[in-house]
Predict the 3D structure of the following.
Amino acid sequence: MGSAKNTTSAQRKARIEEMRKAERSRERRTRILTITASAVVVVGLVVGGVVLVRSQSDKSDTSASDSKGGGSGHFVAGKDGVRTWSGKLTRNHVTKTVKYPMEPPVGGDHNQVWMNCNGDVYTKQVNNMNAVHSLEHGAVWVTYNSKAPDADVKALSEKVKKTPYTLMSPVEDQKDPIMLSAWGKQRTVTSASDPAVNTFFSEFVQGKQTPEPGAACTNGLSQ
């Protein structure tokens, strides 16, 4: 009997020890799984945060730098000599330099501050990004290069000074001596006396093409 009791007791102790080992093993597995899961969550949060920051940065850079005036497109010439930009012109306010696909630009992303365009005549080249904002407000932008006759420059400047929602400035890189631009619209004129000047002003100063009709042309930049 004694031997049987000892055997039973030993078996019970062995069983208890096996159960304890099994419990310790489960606890170790649980701790490992918990640590692993926590690490995965942390890594996921870090990676997600990095992706989000990069995504926002890329989005910001795309809209603020190396933008081409809101996307691809080209001018379509009308019978009246006015060329209309075929692509969509975006209107985001950005801080970095925008590379426009036309010169002078007729729209696209631009600086949040406009050039004063209440009949303002600038003798030095203005920032395209500020001038484009003026076009968004419905202004007509008269530009010229060094090939334009002085008499035409003077006559056009007098006309601009008398016309609200217009501005004028030199743009040396433009392809023709005298050009007129509005939002999404542009044409070349032969001289200050070209009848197309009055026609362009009548149609596009606060015309139907204006994205923000009635927006201010004062209290902006005056160079």
Remarks:
- Residues 188 and 194 are 10 Å apart (CA to CA).
